[in-house]
Amino acid sequence: MSNIQFSTDDQKVLESIMQHRRDVRGNRFIDQDVADEAIEQLLLAALHAPSVGFSQPWEFVLVRDSETKAQIAASFNEENDKAIAQFQDAKQKEYVRLKLEGIREAPVNIAVFYKPSLGPVLGQTSMEEVGRYSVVCAVQNMWLMARAMNIGMGWVSILDPQKVKTILGAPERNELIAYLCVGYVDEFLPRPELEILQWEKRKALQSVVYTEAYDK
Amino acid sequence: MSNIQFSTDDQKVLESIMQHRRDVRGNRFIDQDVADEAIEQLLLAALHAPSVGFSQPWEFVLVRDSETKAQIAASFNEENDKAIAQFQDAKQKEYVRLKLEGIREAPVNIAVFYKPSLGPVLGQTSMEEVGRYSVVCAVQNMWLMARAMNIGMGWVSILDPQKVKTILGAPERNELIAYLCVGYVDEFLPRPELEILQWEKRKALQSVVYTEAYDK
Predict the structure, then answer these.
(1) ipTM (interface predicted TM)
(2) In chain A, which residues have their Cβ closer than 8 Å to the Cβ of B22?
(3) Which residues in chain A are contacts of B203 at CB distance < 8 A?
């Protein structure tokens, strides 16, 4: 079964999904619910992500309740106010104009947690952080699957992870990895919004690839 | 352009790629080189990953040199010896029988680094770790693209990241995120090897999903 050979057409489908995936914010989500079956399809994509030592150290909290969303949004507002102060002059003026989350606009929010194992995990003994990285691989699988299903997803990282844990009643040892906003959209932008706005330039391949070592 | 609607056939292609992706070790790689064009296709998939504030904080070092691979493998052996001691009894006996890397067997190794920005990054002001998570998203894009191209990839995390940095001459502020082994394979296993060997059981969806909060 797993010796299935994928075709160049399959590669092109994957490439297209990757290229058209966007980080979606609240100004794009429309008022249309996402069915439980669709959310389950996203979660099943997550469960097929790689994980160190097959530890599958992920947990997901689905949030639809508006009171919970309001509490999360309050943490965003607080953290975003602090963030604004870190940018200067023109960049700060541009920053405040950006819509950076869709917590209340998206019908479904998904908080993704890392649940550390109690014992040693194969492959995690030298680089403890790879447990968290497994959870990130699951998030990226969800993001690609969402785009393939024509569903928008946004990752909100301007949050106090401790407050999010408290709001959601997460166990003390769990760590918040990602807070995702999920819903249908009016459009997927042709390029990343921050590229369109020239906040940052797209890096060329040759500027980030080295051969054999950094020095050579 | 980005308003392209993907079909259920497209979703099925993506789902199949995700389900047939494997972590590939040295007992599966065959002696067949991977063309530069194929490696470039993997790297282009990486460059289309999401990144916090469009910071694209990734750097890649391509390694084909056998002397460099031998040095990396030496770090693996040293760290793996330490790892063995962390497992007990039957688990330890099973651990030592596993082939956990393909550093020398794979024709191409790719070290993936996180290059932190010097100034503030939009979206990274409250959770600094999301810069590293962007790099992990790039790795997962590469992994899926490799499988779509019928190329195997393995992630080696039993390494001393500081030694890898020294071997590859990485700048002090860069951090090793992943060390990847890339090459053609004799077969992709039908299920993850650690699942087949019953090292860990596959988790069911309902065991990792909560609704509204952990307590409810």
Answers:
(1) 0.98
(2) 2
(3) 47, 56
